[in-house]
Amino acid sequence: MIKSLYYSFSICVFSFLLSSCAFQTLHRTKDINYISANTQQDLPNKNLDIYAPKKAENLPVLLFFYGGSWKSGKKEMYHFLGNRLARRDVIVVIADYPLSPDYQIPAMQASALAAVNWTKDNIESFGGDSDRILVSGHSAGGHLASLIAVKEDELKPSENGKELAGSILIDPAGLDMYGYLEETSEGEGKKYLNAFTDDPAVWKEFSSMYFLNDNLSPMLILEGERTYPSIQAGRERFMKRVEEKGIDDVTVKIYPKKKHIPMITQFLWTGGRVYKDVLGFIEDVSKYN
Q: Judging by DSSP bridges, how do beta strands 59-65 and 219-224 pair with one another?
């Protein structure tokens, strides 16, 4: 899976070097509290940032969760993603969430859901279209995005009852965490037990492939050809279940020669294939909302 220290260092370096894009046409709203420890039992205060064109009006929205082995990362490391997509008329919301070892996967899912519901209920005041919200993430963040997408019917809805327009999973980890930890919990997978506990029932409860259903909104999975074998295997099992259930709206795109971390750092270069794929998908799902 993920070597989180190298992951975090790489993101910081690239973000620092290429974060100097002019801000004159964008508006960044920082540190909006979307979950309060006083109102959400057993969850800490968490904030999100919003990136939008200054004159945004009725634009599609991408809510992004970062990766880092469920134990590291922070929203400030991803302003390059917010800046670049906002310049292409997509409002970007980047949310912090609880991390292990202080918190475990149930709290992470609950926090991610709270970020989604906050966005559904409030994004119109920032120029976003609440009918065109997509949830996204890279690696561990892709796992959280996938959980929200496949469990949308089961999780607590937002106050205004809006539904997701779709999801974009970027080299997502943990699509079948149950299968992975069954094989590796006493070996390489042991390091993930701080987040997923040592209970196989928890592993399955938070493996998105077991919650696929006919009501799934359109999903795009972007995977690096040279990503971690565990990510490849999890995606293959996920897609096998998609096919078994006859679900049509899941698309996989493989990026030749790309490794795991470059699957997110490629967003630093705006002329690359990834922008064409992501913006094209957002445009496609927008046609149905």
A: unpaired
